[in-house]
Amino acid sequence: MLKKVAFVLALTVLVSFALALESGPSNTVGFTKTNCAASGAYTSFGLPFTFWDVVGGVPTYGTQSTNPSDILGSQLTCDFPWVADQVVRQDNGLYAFRNSFLGCAWDGDLENTALPADRMDVGRAYWILNNTVSALDVVLAGEVDTSAYGPIACTGGGVYTPLSFRDARVRPINSINLQTSGGFVGDFPWQADQLVEQATGNYAFVNSFLGNTWDYEPDAWQTVTPSYAYWVLNNHTAFNYNYGPGAVAPPPERPGNDDGKIDRITRPTRRSRSMR
Question: What's the pTM value of the predicted model, to 2 decimals?
Fold first, then answer.
């Protein structure tokens, strides 16, 4: 009996070792879906993932891309330049679209600019201009990346700076490094800096009446969500915001997991083998 148990244990160890070798390294990927209203409406969104260069419909792992052609693919409606759907960067107005004059290839400064900082960069906020008569679901799919990034320059004097968060998790507002980044100022409610969710107008601030703790309007809203866009209303001096999520666990790697707007799967980075 002991020999049989020992054999089973040894076989289990060997099989586990073989599977580990076979599976190789993996990366966590996820997707979000944003519903874009129709008939010339602008819908705000952000980039929750790191995106890769797409060649022949297949992402090239390790070659990062900030181009709309790789991030959005063929999801927006192709048409003449003056009626095609557009993706627009909020902080500088650069845009791109699928041009029917060019066989529906992507066109516009946001796609063609030579300056990487003027493309679809992490931490920025965007709009989808949907010129069709039907609502449009835009899906973003990329690699989960929770590393720090920045800076995002937040202009002072009551200016709203658009931004988003490259993080696949729903995160508590008091954990996204805003107050500790060196410029987001708490004060009386009518003059404190604010974080505002663009889609809803919900906002949060550090309230000096409450001992400089976070206050939320409405109180039930206390988190930032993947692919949502936000504003920082800076009522004080200009500062640079560096997003730092800290030492936190990565999202769970469970196929088909549904957490609000985001679904996650674990995909091997090696080339898959065909099955015959």
Answer: 0.81
